[in-house]
Amino acid sequence: MKKIVLILTLISFHSFAQKGSKQQFIDNLMKKMTLDEKIGQLNLLTAGEATTGSTVSTDIEAKIKAGQLGGLFSISTPQRIRKVQEIAVNQSRMKIPMIFGMDVIHGYKTLFPIPLGLSCTWDLAIIERSAQIAASEASADGICWTYSPMVDISRDPRWGRISEGSGEDPFLGSAIAKAMVRGYQGNNYNSTSNIMACVKHYALYGAAEAGRDYNTVDMSRTRMYNEYFPPYKAAIDAGVGSVMASFNEIDGVPATANKWLLDDVLRKQWGFKGFLVTDYTGINEMIDHGIGDLQTVTAKAMKAGIDMDMVGEGFLSTLKKSVTEKKVTESEIDAACRRILSAKYDLGLFENPYRFCDENKAKTEIFSANNRNEARKIASKSFVLLKNLNQILPLSKKGTIALVGPLADNKENMVGTWSVSGDFAKSISVLQGLKNVAGNNVNIVSARGANITSDAKLEERVSIFGKPTYRDNRSDAEMIEEAVKVSANADVIVATLGEAAEMTGEAASRSDINLPQNQQDLLKALLKTGKPVVLVLFTGRPLTLTWENENVPAILNVWFAGSEAGNAIADALFGDVNPSGKLSTTFPRNVGQIPIYYAHKNTGRPLGDDSKWFQKFRSNYLDVPNSPLFPFGYGLSYTTFQYGEIKLSKNNMTQTDKITASVEVKNTGNFDGEEVVQLYIHDKVGSTARPVKELKGFEKIMLKKGESKTVSFTISVNDLKFYDNNLNYIAEPGEFELMIGTNSEDLKKVGFVLK
Ligand code: BGC
User: Fold this and answer.
1) CA nearest ligand 1 atom 8, residue
2) Kindly report the CA angle at 621 between 616 and 623, in degrees rounded to 5?
3) Which residue of the set 279, 309, 571, 719 is catalytic?
4) At residue 178, does pLDDT exceed 50?
């Protein structure tokens, strides 16, 4: 019986979908829906497979039957999703299929580096590929909607969610946003391996005051448009299907009820056609923001343009009353419902509600050897070599390596934060990776050396979500003593130190971003042995590494590299892969420099470079230089690259023509290697003060030992445009500087004029 109903349902939807246009199909459907059913489509609940908020959804089955649920997230497997979908299409009056979401942030089961790490590859093709693999695995498990890409620009490493984004730069962030949307959505979901993306968190979530999560955001419109909006807009331009509103307020109005943000900018200025979902209980939280009671804030969210209410059920419980009381119009609810139905139509769910429930595909596609191989390659490209004195790295595949540190033999933490669907115990630890790659001539000895932190309470707070830190109850001194003893006969010490995975992520802000004191004490003791020490640094944010940079000869920043972390780290340590990552975020010398970013303004009293520090009545600090420890775009290689002089096709351009800038880059070292050639532009005089430089182009090239290549960039007027004080997007005639080089500080420079 059940089957017959299902077939009839499919036939009727199918014939609808075939016969007319999407518009007609939705019109017909909506004519038959009651107001309650329309409101039901706007309700999104969590099935709770992953914990991503503190509110738990209840009575899910009953709500589906009653037509009170449009979508469900944190649920997976074709079997479970099929079961829920069957209830929707067989037992609810309107038989409308549900949409199934999940936070697939940096991979599904095969996990890739955390997004901040991925962004350090500066390799758009592999970033797109990682999203494609994630979509193909997630879709094989029944999921058709992911809450990614997260494109929030952040210039504050205290903020734990800096790990989830692409760093500080709007140009790089925009390019990555587009690549990820392409990777997830493919060509309009014409394959079942593509899923709908959801760009988040709109907007400005990464600019929380003091780096404390969910905190107030307040900034000028010119800064929004020039520096923080571009990646969201890039995702819209790439055709992203949905947008998630952020938790924070903007100009005093929470994003979730900010009509200017959601309607004027997103829909009217940028032409966004998809649907808008709140973040987890985003509507209800406006009560604590002090905006009103549940009915009031819900009505405000609806009027501002929110279509779907995540977990909070304010829509479900108050919207009808608001219609009766004329606080919300039925046509506003209709518009929201239409957008949800349209997304389901685009995903092909009306044609086949089980389109993404293919058990066989799940068996072959998920966590396949092929996907893991790709993850390993991608991971090794995200590492940033911060220091390599006397070419300690790469290590040779013989002799004794002492592997020390709390992250040496920890699988679960390798995957980093926001990896809710992963199977952490299947990831590769550093110890395993070294053994896999080293061959038979390397002897590996190991010792714990230190806990993540001496502060047991702090460690407990971050030993969550199935990522134990395996705290050792010995004293710090005992562990250090053992590590020193174990290292006595080693040729080199590899210290795997840094943060635990959940020291970044949501509600994981830190006011102190040093390496924890007990880990630094371990490092000091290891250095005292006189052996070469390589610091393999795990982190989800820039850390303040001033002491480490002064004292440790080699530092390889490996972020959290995903399922294949250990293998990829070993590939890089032994030189099977030459590190090519470049920082997408500035590393400060100390917390007091925050916010620190390369594209700053000059001020009226600039200091110039560090050689001039300190000067009274200049913009500088008494106790620390202005420059960062490691600048944006920075990253070493086992080889060296030499840049020639920049050649311009001409020195003047008009608003309609173009200039080509070329530079020859030569691999002058002893290894083949990849280099990210970076182009920056400085608008010397503007109607508003302009940044000292802005990234406007980059190309990652492979150069064999001794090889040279000429890299060319074409500059058009679009690369010179910015939002002026009246928010006009213009290029102002005048002098510009064009810079090309290996990072944001080490650059060759030429001038040109826009007529
Ligand atoms: C996060 C979002 C996430 C959502 C759903 C929220 O707490 O801020 O990034 O997509 O939960 O899990």
Assistant:
1) 279
2) 110
3) 279
4) yes
pLDDT at 13: 54
**Which residues on adjacent β-strands are paired with residue 738?**
681, 750
Residue 199, helix vs strand vs coil:
strand
Among 72, 279, 504, the mutation site with the greatest number of ligand 1 atoms within 8 A of its Cβ is 279
Whether residue 5 has pLDDT greater than 60: no
Rg, C-alpha atoms of the chain: 27
Give me the DSSP letters along 237-281.
Answer: HTT-SEEEE-SSEETTEEGGG-HIIIIIIIIIIT---SEEE--TT
For the question of residue 657 being annotated catalytic, the response is no
CA distances from 379 to 81, 397, 710, 744 (A): 31, 21, 27, 23
Band (659; pLDDT cuts 50, 70, 90): very high
Longest dimension (CA), the chain: 85
Give 290-349 as a DSSP string. Answer: TS--HHHHHHHHHHHT--BEESS-HHHHHHHHHHHTTSS-HHHHHHHHHHHHHHHHHTTT
For residue 98, give the nearest of 284, 344, 290 by alpha carbon: 344
- In CATH terms, 377-573 corresponds, of 3.40.50.1700, 3.90.220.20, 3.90.550.10, 3.40.47.10, to 3.40.50.1700
Average pLDDT, integer, range 643-652: 98
Which helix (DSSP H) or strand (DSSP E) does residue 530 occupy?
A: none
Does residue 709 register a pLDDT over 80? Answer: yes
Residue nearest to atom 12 of ligand 1 (CA): 52
Domain 639-754, CATH: 2.60.40.10
Residue nearest to atom 10 of ligand 1 (CA): 147
CATH placement of domain 1-100+335-367: 3.20.20.300
State the CB neighbour count (10 A cutoff) for residue 166. 30
Residue 52 CA to ligand 1 center (angstroms) comes to 6
Ligand 1 atom nearest residue 53's Cα: 7
What's the mean pLDDT in 195-207?
A: 98
Pairwise CA distance, residues 468 & 464, whole Å: 7
> Domain residues of the chain, as ranges?
1-100+335-367, 377-573, 639-754
Q: How confident is the model over 86-95, as pLDDT tens digits?
A: 999 999 999 9
Spacing, Cα 639 to ligand 1 middle (Å)? 41
Question: Which backbone phi and psi does 150 adopt, to 5 degrees?
Answer: -95, 115
Residue 740: its pLDDT value, please? 99
Token pair 């995975």 in the structure block, residue: 501
Ligand 1 pocket list (CB less than 6 A): 52-53, 103, 147, 200, 279-280, 506
